[in-house]
Design goal:
The chain is of the alpha/beta class. It is about 40% helix and about 20% strand. A hairpin with a 5-residue loop joins strand 3 and strand 4.
Length: about 375
Amino acid sequence: MTDGAVLREAACVLIAADKFKGSLTAVQVAERVTAGLLSVAPEATVETLPVADGGDGTVAAAVAAGFERREVRVTGPLGDEVTAAFALRDGTAVVEMAESSGLQLLPDGVFAALTATTYGAGQLLAAALDAGASHIVFGVGGSATTDGGAGMLTALGARLLDADGAPVGPGGGGLRDLATADLSGLDPRLADTNIVLASDVDNPLTGPKGAAAIYGPQKGASAADVTTLDAALTHYTKVLETAIGSRATGLAHAPGAGAAGGIGYGALVGLHASFRPGIEVMLDVLGFDSALSRATLVITGEGSLDEQTLHGKAPAGVAAAARARNVEVIAVCGRLALRPEELGKAGIRRAYALSDLEPDAARSMSQAGPLLERLASNIARDFLI
């Protein structure tokens, strides 16, 4: 400990932060914060629990918490084969659709707004069933797709056919040609499996707040593509209504239906999944409550603390859980776009941003690790000694 300083108390710090997208994984964030804290307060007890909200990084967080990593070859968003992973422990599988169908799997500058498929996500779910999972946390987010989960359902045994009785093409664009749907061939094991749809968004499938309108442009969709995709998804629900009844139309408006290009809808309508905010599900799965019981201070965070953070992102979920136990919460981030009063309402006492140390965004991202250690050393001085 520096300059003869002593700990204010028997400090036990819990680091429960998400990734800094584009620069640090959640595991790396935890490592850097730990190093910074201990450089100033080496007698502090530090426990790490990397977290995720259902999007990319969810499997990695589960593995860091003790789940076994399982890899399988599946179909990627462009139809080529990729290696994807899920996590497994004691009959519970954590399946992350971004592992098979995520934007990070696309080559730089390449998008396939109309044709990207979730077929690989269905293969991942089947692999989890093959591994003996009876409870599946299906984390969705970071998708390259807008196909309403049609590819996923097809991989699990559904038949989605055009007027000639041939399978429709991949992606949301292919749904324009959908004439009949038959879900009777879905993997029978699904009926005995508890599937939780874990997402940080609650958008409906279609309309001005739907999957195509809100998230399509992030996946390379032009204004014309957005119109095409929204119409195709609307048509998809009508065909499914003919196949399985009014439930298909009602679920298109359910919270989470529009998640990850509408794969949320496919999970709700075809897999009978239940929807829960992703961070709530993951905190349960990762054992956050037990770790929190030992903590005197929690450090959470993500790449950007902004308005979206307040609506279901990991730091907000961590802060809400900690506040319920009267444990103080500090946040770290790359960029801070929330006022102190907004942070306070979310249960975060103070936030430390990399941009305070390095205002140049490119350098901040490239030097995120060392900068984060410096921030953590400042936190130790302010709150631990």
